[in-house]
Amino acid sequence: MLRVLTLATLFPDASRPTFGGFVERQTLTLAARDDVQLEVVAPIGVPPWPLNHHAQYRQFAAVPEREMWKGVTVHRPRFRSIPKIGGSRAPAAMARAVMPVLRDIHERFPFDIIDAEFFYPDGPAAMRLAADIGVPFSVKARGADIHYWGKKPGCAEQVREAGLQASGLLAVSEALKVDMVALGMAADKITVHYTGIDKELFRPVDRAEAKQSLGITGPLIVTVGALIPRKGQAIVIDALRDVPDATLWCIGEGPDRPALEKQARALGLGERVRFPGNLPHTEVASLLATADVMALPSVSEGLANAWTESLACGTPIVISSAGGAAELIDRPEAGAITAREPAAIATETRRILADPPDQDAVRATVDRFSWERNSDALFTHLSRLVER
After folding, report:
1. Residue 202 lies inside a defined structural domain of this protein
2. Is residue 362 domain-shared with residue 374, that is, in the same domain?
3. Which of 25, 109, 213, 324 could form a disulfide with 303 if both were Cys (CB 3.0 to 4.6 A apart)?
4. Is residue 127 part of a domain?
């Protein structure tokens, strides 16, 4: 029996039901195994008074510090987080808040390993916690935790130290593994661990019928991700000018929304660009399957869930050469890797619209991705570290 303590700041709660859904699914799938016992510690960062009364943080007051979440025990200790300026202090603050909780858990549930689900602040916090409890720890890199926090002064050193001290590491793509090695982490310690896909949820549909139900008459393009500059929604909006009669849905929420809405209006595209906000996974899956193209010209990625989920829906993708892009776009049916420029995005989108690939052929490009494989690989990785 493998006993796992999952440490994840990216984990949903009642106030944020879609937050960190990919971490939740990985965790629940692992916990469902007969040979695994698992509990989750999902720390919540809250700023000091009076900032904690802001609507963004006030919602956490109703979230219990311990609960059964979809059959798994989840602990949610609070730690002090200073917005914008407190990034370098977050791992230590998180470890201090979690330590008493973890000691109590370990007395009752003597877990074998700490499995940290994001490199920052989870990784450096796990390093401190594992040393105190006397167990090994693993950290999973997903993209921004390496590309942003791994370069930010005051944080980069902690990312590297956690990578050096960890018993083992995971990366969501081969490309991200290369980036981790460039930061000084040992290649032989890093295992590529692809995220799974729910292929019952993300699957092809009759596009014409789905579009009709939404009142869409022409081509549909979607983007999926936080509305932040790194994701490149502004580039896709610019590109829309050269994709006649197409509608663009920017799924997600974030600080760039007002600027993106203003941009669409200024370009005369206000009626053709929609911002539905954050949506439940069922609605995201439905829109991805309805779309003709999913475009996401990110600055950096590990291996974006939106890419694989779109392909599982039979919808080709137009993306930049970020992260593991080349690991997915390995045949024409999958879509195209192109420059982060409106003209390039428009050209590739028009090419796909002019000769759309068969939906089943697109879906076949992600045959190797599943939650079952993800769980088997994670179990093997963690078990190997415990046995050392």
Report:
1. no
2. no
3. 324
4. yes
List strand residue ranges (DSSP E) for the chain, in order: 2-7, 36-41, 44-46, 66-69, 72-75, 78-80, 113-116, 137-141, 168-171, 190-192, 220-224, 247-251, 273-277, 293-296, 317-319, 335-337
Domain match, 222 and 253 both: yes
Whether residue 55 has pLDDT greater than 80: no
| 300 within 8 A of 322, measured Cβ to Cβ | yes
Same-domain pairing of 56 and 183:
yes
Residue-wise pLDDT tens digits, 262-279? 999 999 999 999 999 999
Are 182 and 274 part of one and the same domain?
Answer: no
pLDDT at residue 47, as a whole number:
87
Which residues lie below 8 Å from residue 100, measured CB to CB, with a gap of 6+?
none
User: Residue with structure tokens 């904690």?
Assistant: 52
Going by C-alpha positions, the residue among 117, 176, 186, 188 that lies closest to residue 150 is: 176
CA distances in angstroms from 343 to 7, 135, 241, 339, listed in the order given: 43, 52, 9, 9
Report the alpha-carbon distance of residue 290 to residue 286 in Å, rounded.
Answer: 6
Same domain for 126 and 10: yes
User: Which amino acid belongs to residue 260?
Assistant: L
DSSP state of 60: G
Mean pLDDT of all residues belonging to the chain: 95
Helix (H, G, I), strand (E, B) or coil at 75: strand
Average confidence (pLDDT) over 176-194: 96
pLDDT at residue 29 is higher than 90? yes
For 43, left (φ over 0), alpha (ψ -120 to 50), or beta? Answer: beta
